[in-house]
Each structure stands twice: as C-alpha cells, then as structure tokens.
C-alpha cells in the first residue's frame, strides 16, 4: 500500500491512512506500506538546496530531501501502533534498499527480503520510507521525483506481493482527462503498455519508471483513491484483460514545441548531423518527420522537443547552421500532441483512419503524425486541444452513457 | 564547531555559518562541524509524534525527530562546497556514532575515528548531524533535547580536537542572568565543575551531559556567539585557571516547589519510606532538610521537587499517608532556588556567611539551605528572585564597573 504526499499531508490524514492499513491487516493480509513525504515538504527541501547553490552536490541533495519520507514513515508507524497494529519503520539504509550511485535519480538494484519475511510472518507491518535507498558507498540515494511509486513497486516485487496498491488523490486511470471530457470513464483495467504510453504522454498518475518496473516484474498495480473506499484501476498484464478495447484512452501533452529545418541536404548522414548535436546538448527529440524530397536534393525536416528544451534546441541548431546547411529554421510552440492509445490496435486495421477522419470533420489540421505499435500521436495547433480530445473520445466510443 | 538551531535557522544563516567555518579552514585548521536542526523544527516533529499518540514508541520518535539534523547537515555541506570548501555530511549511522539503545535519551558509546582522520588529512570538513546516533540493532537513536552539544563534545573527544566551540545565541557564560543584573559580566573562563552547577541550576547555555562528557575527556569547550566575531567563555580544567575567583556566578531556578511533611516519626528508615515511593514514581527530589527532633519522637521533613513533578509528588505522598504517618502535608510552589557557585569556596571559609548576611540585609528569609563542595543554594520566596540575585552579585564583587 503506497500513499502519496496528499494522502499523508497532515496528522489527521496519517491517522486515516493508518485506519485503512488496519482494515487490510484485520482482513488477514500481510501488509507493507510505502509513504511519500507530506505534500509540499520535498519542494521546500529542494528549494533550500537550490537557494544555497544552483549546482549542488547530488549526494548532499539526497541527504536533505530523503528526510521528508523519514518523517512520514516514523509517524505512520506510530499511528499504526496507536491502533494496536504491530508496525515498524524502515529507512532505505536499514532494509537496505540497495541502489546504484546515480544520486538524485538512482535505480534500485536489490532489496533483501529475509528479514522482512520473518517479520511479516509475525504479523508486523513494514512501513518503508519511499523515494530513498542507499548507494554502494553507504550514502543516501533518492530515486527522482515521484520515486515513491517506484519504491512501492520494487518492494512489492521483492516480497512477492499479490498486489501493489497506489493510493493517490485521483480514484483511478481515466479514458482521458475528466477536466476536458465530462464523459470520461474510469477504466477498470489497463495494460502495462497502455499505462506506460499514458504516463509518457502526460497523464501524471504514476511515475513512468514504476510502470516499467511493474511490467518487468509482473507486479499487479492498482491506482485508487486514498479518500474514497472503492476499487480503482488495475494495471495488469495484457493476458488478464479478456475483452480488449480497440482504444483505451486519449492523452494529450501541451509540453511540445515544433521545429522545422527547410531545404536541408537530402543525403545520408543528415539526420545524424542534426540530432547528434541536440543529443549532446541533452535535448530530447520526440516526433520526427522527414518529407520525401521534391527536387531530389533537399528536404524539410520537422521534429518536436519539450517546451523546456525549446530555446536550447534552437540555439544549438543555429550554432550548427554552417555545418547543417539548412535554409530556414521555422519554430512553433503553440502546438499540442494528441494521442490515442490501445493494445487492441495491434490487431485491427483502420484505427488511424478513424482518428484522421474525426479530426478532419472538426476542421483540425494535422501537422505531424507519429505512430507506435499501440499508439497514434498527432501534432495540432494548441487552440484545438479540447476539441480534438473530445472528438476522439467520442469517435472511439469511449464516452460514458 | 557546533552550531545550534538559531544559528542555522534559515538559508542566510547557514551561509553565514559556512563563511565562519571557511575562515577556520583557511587558517589551516582541520575542522569538524556539528549542526542542530533549524530552530523550531524539532518542536514541530515532537508535536506531531505527541499528536498521534501521547505515549509513542521511542524508536519511531527517534526516526522522526532525527530528520531535522539530517536536513541541516546536508545543507551545510552544500553551503561549504559552494564556498570552495571540501565538505561532506555524516549522519549518525554513517560514522557510525554508536549509542546504547535508550531511545530518546541515548548515550554515546563509541565513535570510530579512522575514516574521519583519513578525510581530515585530505582537508575535508566533516559535517555531522548532531543529536543522533545508531543503536545496537541498527536503529536511529537520539540523545535527548540539547543533545547536539553532547554530539559535538563526543566528536571532539573522538578526534582529539584541540577545542570544541559551541556557537549559540549568547556570547558566553555570564556571572548571572544579564536580564536580571545589568552589571553581569561575561566570564573569560569557567571550570567544568562550575559550568556543571550552572547548567544544573538553570543556566541553559549547555546541555549538562555535554559538560560532564567534556570534563571526563578533558575537552576544552568554548561557548561563543554565532552572530558576533569575538571570543566567548572557555570551559576548562581547574588547573588552567590561574586566578580563581571565590565565586564565579549566581544562578537561580524558578522551577522549584517545596513540600513539608510535619510530625513524621523520627526513627531509622523514615527517609527511605518517604523518598522510595517518590523515586518509584520518577520524581526527582532536590534539596532535603530534616530538622532536629523537638520531642524526640517526631520531626518535620522538607524537600523540593521540580514544578513539573509537584502534583505527582503530592499524590504519591497522600497515597502513602497511612504508611508514612505524617500529620500535615504543607506545600508551596512560590519559591525560587538561588545559588552561588565557585571552585574557590573549597579553600575559603566564610563564603556561606557572606550569602546569609547579604540576604538578611535585604530582609529575605531563607527557607531551606543546601550546600555542595562548590555551591551554596538557598530556597526563598519567589517574589525575592531579582532582589536576591542582585544582592548576591554585588556581595561577591561580581558587578562590572
């Protein structure tokens, strides 16, 4: 049972969470709990580090920010004991949750289970500080923002849990953003692959890495509300889902910016010439489209980057202009990426066509298209965001009645 | 160099402390730093534990409250690095600062110095999280409120430091409370024994245990201001002080309450009969006076307890009334204990007499007297506190010019 920052935001909520854990214990389950820092705490700690030094030692940053989860895991153990539940807190170095030494974004390598198993057998609830581990040199590491989700999945995998429940401030995964589409439906089940695409495309329910890890170790994940007592969305293996929907959800991301280089030479190595310098500058390129050459000599190259990388990307490209030999650099950050996602599209034709038709009927021009096995993404002008999402939600039969 | 909560209360002060540490490093010194939690933080953490459960697991309490020092030691390392000083943070379990398992008030058993020495030799500043250690079962322990002073002395003793500087919000140890006596003087030097008495008698400059430890390991302590750059008060061995004052200071404590049991049987075992049940109830008894029996059969027994124990002490005694067989229980919490302290009084007669005379001249009635080798304490009505302290400060020639 993993509880995020809003679920443990104050003493009253910590008490409520303890009650929820007690119910699982009373039902005869062996329970491990993973907690985040109280909401707002991690931001404060990160700010202090930045205030002292914009470029600070990641090892010391980890010491500072890991303290937030330390507080909540101790408090949660006290809250459980107060309810008569045998419980104890586990800090990363105590378990130990062994990670690599990539401070600030460490990866979990191993969680020994012997000691934990012995305590579960006695009925003791283990309360883990999420987000933290210990590196090879005995120093505190953290897993990156949202890392408590990954802690939870890693613990669930290590102890062979039947289920990993991620309690959060939403009650599940929806077919799309309910703030845009009133008829959005909560999904009962979704596959790991779909959840990964959803997470990558802007649905902030779960940290991407936690879904990857769940998929790798076949941990059955449930996303559910910590404030309401009802089932959430199960993230499971494809085989667990009997009736596969063609499309499970519509995602969108406003964090996109488009760059087009016109009349670059149409010859081998030109793509490497463009994207090499961008990679060196740590710019992540997403959608890439190269048009067929008209004159046989030059072509236009269009691609997208995140808005945060937009300025840097343009600077890098302008700096390489003499080498790249393009005519113009055209850029536009008023764009949105809209995606339809579903494992069902693997075995069905015509899914993409339905998307293009639905958008065309609303007069929405598609600027860039990119596809993967289980998703189709298009780039359109940002002003069409809501219209496009709603049209697609209806077109794929996702609207609730 | 130990910095208390007010010295690291915010980012600006942490930066200022880092500058101060850098000056010592630049002067060619090998420096270890011990930090408290930012002021207010520990109180907040303690409150949360109490809010969840008045009687909480001390092991989990330790996990929660130790986080405050974790934050500041990481931040301090970052601040030092930003000034170009090689530094790293050390949490209790990393050093390790080994303690016994008395959670919430643990005692330091051992601090291995090999690893630290190797780093000092390379010029690296070690920044320790004060107040915390690790118990035999690999769990976090804390040393009790004010425990960072003890951490600092323990580290100084372990590494064989030439000096242990305790930076705080006062600039040294005074002959008495400057808020009461405007002519109070800052002492250049004071002996461990005197400092111990001062600390026990209500001067809150240093945690008592830290002074005991400094005395035991002959660590030269300096109490000085973290806000002004000038020498403070050195707490040292008696042999280091050439000209011993008869009296070094006047202390007072308002945290006193007086209880008298009248007409208790004057026979062997009666004191044990009274103080045994009080000890069992964890009531600390301070001054004890038994008058000579008038009738040869009964006597009056007077003693003091702290105000916090007052109600419990009365309850325990009333509960034992049938056994103790006293006539009346007379109690009074409007009292203050005033003490004169000085190692010089060991070898000089007439010190006590000067005290009694000074108080008599002001018309102050002495209720109880208690003496030790280097201190005389009297209990007087609380309303005379300031008058008594000022009179004694003058009588022993402590007033500054």
Automatic annotation (TrEMBL), chains A, B:
Residues that bind substrate: 42, 69
Gene3D superfamilies membership: Acetylglutamate kinase-like (3.40.1160.10), VC0802-like (3.30.2130.10)
GO biological process: homoserine biosynthetic process; lysine biosynthetic process via diaminopimelate; threonine biosynthetic process
Leading EC class: transferase
Pathway: Amino-acid biosynthesis; L-lysine biosynthesis via DAP pathway; (S)-tetrahydrodipicolinate from L-aspartate: step 1/4; Amino-acid biosynthesis; L-methionine biosynthesis via de novo pathway; L-homoserine from L-aspartate: step 1/3; Amino-acid biosynthesis; L-threonine biosynthesis; L-threonine from L-aspartate: step 1/5
Family: Belongs to the aspartokinase family.
Protein name: Aspartokinase
Lineage: Bacteria, Pseudomonadati, Pseudomonadota, Alphaproteobacteria, Rhodospirillales
């Amino acid at each position: 049972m993993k509880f995020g920052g809003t679920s443990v935001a104050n003493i009253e909520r910590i008490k409520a969470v303890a009650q929820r854990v007690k119910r699982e214990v009373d039902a005869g389950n062996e329970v491990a709990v993973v907690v985040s820092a109280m909401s707002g705490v991690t931001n404060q700690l990160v700010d202090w580090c930045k205030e002292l030094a914009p470029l600070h030692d990641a090892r010391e940053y980890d010491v500072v920010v890991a303290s937030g989860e330390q507080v909540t895991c101790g408090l949660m153990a006290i809250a459980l004991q107060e309810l008569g539940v045998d419980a104890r807190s586990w800090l990363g170095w105590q378990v130990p949750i062994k990670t690599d030494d990539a401070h600030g974004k460490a990866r979990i390598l191993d969680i020994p289970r012997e000691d934990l198993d012995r305590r579960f057998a006695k009925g003791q609830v283990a309360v883990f500080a999420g987000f933290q581990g210990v590196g090879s040199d005995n120093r505190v590491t953290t897993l990156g923002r949202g890392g408590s989700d990954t802690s939870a999945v890693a613990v669930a995998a290590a102890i062979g849990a039947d289920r990993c429940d991620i309690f959060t401030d939403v009650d599940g995964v929806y077919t799309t953003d309910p703030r845009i589409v009133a008829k959005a439906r909560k999904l009962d089940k979704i596959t790991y692959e779909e959840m990964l695409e959803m997470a990558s495309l802007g649905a902030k329910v779960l940290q991407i890495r936690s879904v990857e890890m769940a998929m790798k170790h076949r941990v059955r994940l449930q996303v559910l509300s910590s404030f309401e007592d009802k089932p959430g969305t199960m993230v499971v293996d494809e085989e667990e889902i009997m009736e596969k929907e063609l499309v499970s959800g519509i995602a969108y991301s406003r964090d996109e910016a488009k760059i087009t280089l016109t009349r670059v030479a149409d010859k081998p190595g030109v793509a490497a010439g463009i994207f090499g310098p961008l990679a060196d500058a740590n710019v992540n390129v997403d959608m890439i489209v190269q048009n067929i050459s008209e004159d046989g000599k030059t072509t236009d190259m269009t691609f997208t980057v995140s808005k945060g990388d937009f300025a840097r990307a343009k600077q890098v490209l302008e700096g390489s202009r003499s080498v790249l030999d393009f005519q113009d650099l055209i850029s536009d950050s008023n764009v949105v990426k809209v995606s339809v996602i579903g494992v069902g599209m693997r075995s069905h034709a015509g899914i993409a066509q339905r998307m293009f038709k639905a958008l065309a009927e609303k007069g929405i021009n598609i600027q860039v298209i990119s596809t993967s096995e289980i998703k189709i993404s298009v780039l359109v002008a940002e002003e069409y965001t809501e219209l496009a999402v709603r049209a697609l939600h209806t077109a794929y039969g996702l609207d609730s009645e």
